[in-house]
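Lecture notes, structural biology module. Today: joint structure prediction for complexes of three components.
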Amino acid sequence: MNIRETLGTLSAMAGPSGFEHPVAEQAAGLMRPFLDEANVDRFGNAVGVRLCGKPGAPRLLLDAHLDEIGLMVTGVEDGFLRFRTIGGVDPRMLPDRELTVLTHPSILGVVTCLPPHVLKPGDTKKAIPISELRVDIGMDQKEAERTVPIGTPMVFRGGCFDLKNGRLCGKSMDDRSCFTILLRTAELLKDKPLDVDLYVMGSTREEVSGAGAKVGTYGIHPDYCVAVDVTHAKTPDMGKGRRSNIGGGPQIGVGPNMTRWMTERMVGKARELGIPYDLEVMEGHTGTNGWHMQIVREGVATSVVSLPLKYMHSPIEVLDLADIEQTAQLLAAFAEHLGKEAGSIC
Amino acid sequence: MDILKTLQSLNACHGPSGDEAEVASLLEKLAMPFVDECRRDTMGNLIAHKKGAGSRVLFAAHMDSIGFIATYIEKEGFVRFCKVGGLHAPDLIATPVRFKNGVRGVICLNEGVEPKEMTLEDLYIDIGAHDEEEARAMVGIGDTAVYDTPTFGAGDRLVSPYMDNRISCIVLLMAMEQFQKSENDLYFVFTVQEELGLRGAKTAAYAIDPDYGIAVDVTVSADELGSKHSGSSRLGGGAAIKVMDSSIICHPEMVSKLSALAGERGIDVQMDVIRSGGTDAGSIYTTKMGVLTGGISIPCRYVHTPQEMVDRGDVEACARLVCAFAEASL
Amino acid sequence: MLSLVKELCLLNGVSSGEDEVRAFIREKAAPYAEAMRTDALGNLIVFKKGAKATGNKLMLTAHMDEVGFIVNDITEDGYLKFAPVGGIDPRVVIGKRVSVGLGRVQGAIGLKAYHLVSAEEEKNVPKFEDMYIDIGARDRADAEAAVSLGALVAFESDAVEFGYGMFKAKAIDDRVGCAVMLKLLEEELPMDCTFVFSTQEEVGTRGAFGAAFSVTPEIALVLEGTTAADLPGTDSHRQVAVPGRGPVLSFMDGGTVYDRELFELMRELGEKHQIPWQLKSGISGGNDASAVQRTKEGVRVAAMSVAVRYLHAPSSVACVQDFDHMHALARKWIEAVACL
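The predicted structure, tokenised, for the full assembly:
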């Protein structure tokens, strides 16, 4: 598979939390070449499975979420759209931001901002709260009301583009870059025998609730799960705390949300294969689907593996394509012989 | 069904989160004529079941209300309390309340505290006791109280405490009354402890494991004076079809299905997107392998204050829409 | 009871690293258990047969974990950076002794010498991200040889009696609950009982979800440690609970409205058998009951707790007699439940 091309397509698709269907269909289609079958389940998650053929084999679930953050129309005022956020949208990203308004067909919108000429001194120093922002769709009140029902979702416009050194910049790297990792992992395992039944899930609604991962995990009932999501990479303006650069390889999560023997196995495999990695210590809620998956049913042995990403939740998220390949290599190594080599808490 | 009279009867019952038995008993009596069986589950949810061979549908309306729980008795006989559900301190000053055993009192603000800086901890209930001993004979630690304000009509609007969520319980009863027939296997669930975090709906939905879920609740309207538009609906605009609140983004198929049904039956509807506030839908949709869930909401002003307001026409529209979904081929 | 509580408090078991505690309890419980297992989150689930064969009807739980820290970076100079695991007030942490990792490497949470602190600085409390643990390492490499990233850090605090019948130790919340359960395990019980020694309660009742799901009880009793704020200067209505007045019986907290009938039963039994008991003058906090109650089709839950001063701090204080009273009341309650 062509990682850059696959991710390019996924990035350009619109699928904010709750409205992921087209992305889920695409995701299922992308999984099919590497698994026995893949479908979109009733809830909206894309789920693929590859059975290993051993009766009573344990189940491994790899998860990455398909939804992106977005906005939702809450009213129409003088032809301009009022809106609220879907997920953690930084309001400072919004003034003069181009959006795709997801009517059928979709239309262009621009988030309003007053020009410098009419601002009062001091205005440019204050961030504008969302309640004061509007979206300009170039229509009058009647046209706007007719075209855009309340409840219409919106996303950042565009997809992604290339920076130097194999770096990619665009929207929805969180978390479609990690779904791309899962595709590549499934590809790497394709001709290798497994001793676990492998489930790959492109889950929905992570950005708002983790509901997709919860119900998906309930249905699959795995013994082991790995949540693959993005994590903050170092940028010049970051505060204190240990952070890695993009290009440093996958970040392996350590802490209460990550079952220790799973973490140790992940680290062991990274060392064995010479895959660059770092440990990411998370003392509580990891902010990933791993938090929800760990407590489904009787509880699931959980690992969280993260891709370093700069400018998370902006339309200009930046990653290193090499990290995608490295992470996929790691996950494939983790999955091989897992049935035989699995640890446990004693 | 006489909406105002039924509302008055329901509000005369004591039913704060965690102590809903009285309301449940009355609702069971009112619901029984329309269904095949009624039962209570471990948490106290009232499940009214109208059997059918087809798809399983769960309609949920929470029967609990917000309220107060006595936590300490001062030596002067004043009663300190904690909240049961979401209370906003400024809404409570000079509000009459009544305890389960009938003791009545009023909520007062510690005179030494500036209203602008008050918190719930600065309030107390005066039950008219002369001292601690007398108060202890009237009220015990752990006793609960509810708003004791009137339920009345104002033009084509209704005003009462606990529109949230007694009006929705009435909507379910009205729908049950209007229901003609369908293949669907219908569960009308009057849930408990929604105000504490959507708790009752979780276990009810687990037991029923429905194909579809609809939460009926009030929603914050955007038509109060000086509205900050935390909602998108208005009184008189019809049944509000829920798109998003803080607990759920409703499945688009449910939103379109409800819109289509409304269109077919000529029911006035509007879209419901609110910034804060959740409903039982948030608990239902993550049951087991997931449930396609939507919401039918009654636009409401002054939510969680002692006097909330809804529009009669909206209430009737909601009942018709619930009925439409119950009768729909799914 | 007291020596059991002492032993348990001295063990280290910060949330997700309960191994020492689990091993100790497993050994003590083994002779009395019909069946014992450890699940995916590390909960130790012990089934004990009783006079009446009631299967999974009754479940008791107490959590094995305590609050602590996790090492999230090692500086060039060999200091350990850390984050809290569970809810900890930063003010009780500065200048305290700690024990790092499985090897129990000794350390102290360092701070600038008082002489060097400005009047302004003295007013403010440093944030966790500004604090550091000194294990005496020379540099990063030296520290890394002793301690790994992700190591769990427990308070270092001995377990002693003091004053009149009072007890000081770390982790009284909830080793006291574990001790009461172990005592009950040793006794003949009127009905079958599943004892769940849960994990990760302090980071969100995490272990309890899966344990309750797999056991699926009808009735559950949570045995806990709870806040006592009975200090001079605290208004009476904010004191919550008081050590020495007996186990605290819960009717409601931030996570659960307890089963009324089961709560009244605890109260009646306390009166009948002259076991002191008290109520909390406040609705706050939560425990494993919030996870258990809403499991599957619902579980009837009750909770009783020992009042502990300075909860979630290295030097917690409780009243020794309360431990025995909680055990006695729990015992009577199980006898009554066996007749329900």
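Point to remember: The domain at 3-68+171-341 of chain A is CATH 3.40.630.10 (Aminopeptidase).
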